[in-house]
Amino acid sequence: MSASPSEPAPTRPVPRPGVMDAPLYVPGTHKAGDDAVPPAILSANENPIGCSPKAVEAYRAAADQLNRYPEGGSVDLRAAIGETTGLDPERIVCGAGSDELITLLVRAYAGPGDEVLHSRHGFLMYAISAQTVGATPVAAPEPDLRTDADQLLAHVTPKTKIVFVANPNNPTGSWSPESELLRLRAGLPAHVLLVLDSAYAEYVREPGYGDGRALVDAGENVVMLRTFSKIYGLAALRLGWAYAPASILEALNRLRSPFNVNAAAQAAGVAAVRDQDFVERAVADNAEQLRRMTQSLTQLGLEVPPSVCNFTLAGFKDAETAQAANRFLLARGVIPRMVAAYGLPRYLRISIGTKEEVTRCLDALADFLKREG
Ligand SMILES: *Cc1c(COP(=O)(O)O)cnc(C)c1O
Asked: How many whole angstroms from 203 Cα to the centroid of ligand 1?
């Protein structure tokens, strides 16, 4: 063996460089305390009205075939996604949540010594995934809590391999027009992969927004990610997909495990994507409660950056107050999300719940602010 004689062999297996540097992703909690009354879970941007009843039915039916391996290529699901989106099923790959696809893209295109670029308040999984492969996450400033194409381009170096942009972004709730993304892509070297994470695309009805498909079609270095966890209300099943150029699909299909999406998730996904009535209902409910939440939080004197998603930020005067508000809400059975790990210690992120959940949250916050004086 070539190990240097001066270095004793480790006494136990040692993970590859980077693995132990990555922080653990801490998910939003679902428990407020003793939870005698069911809490209002506003911590994970889940769909508060559940999912399509047709998806539940398909999931139950899958229980009769648990002895069988899933179809490995998610063929029916990709076809159903194609039917409703107009995209070519041959250019889609499904994953166990878009989180899996983020991880696979990073494994495929970055390694030790490489840089993975994201914006300062971008989704945490980008930096975490980069670290696990020994790459260096680089955060570009995000003035006014908005992804800034010029800032991202200014931070591209010869080591940059991937740029991640969530559009709209979590946890800021802000979005970029397609024209900005086109500008970003035009400024990137052709070998740099641009990942457009459109996890909240279905919620966005603003003119000028694009989910990223046009950029995927226009070249070979853009991937669009989508998920069934948000508007479709299937977070428990772990289901996401990527729309990508053929060369990138080939890499992802080699790296993914052969049965990465389980059979029940595939079946439920097919039913869910065909039930666009459910999607429209969920979008309408969310828009109404988001408007209410935004108005009332603003009236309470909190800072509310504009959001087009199923969550909003609420800004307090300092980090201590945000922490105190978090504790107060938990004691009242309302569960927000602390976002200090995203560089936003003064803020709480609050998912848009049902009408009743939004009322509970607003009432509790009003009481908290009265107490604070
Ligand atoms: C929630 C979320 C995802 C994760 O989706 P899964 O499909 O559940 O893994 C990806 N990106 C962003 C920006 C998200 O907020």
From this structure: 14
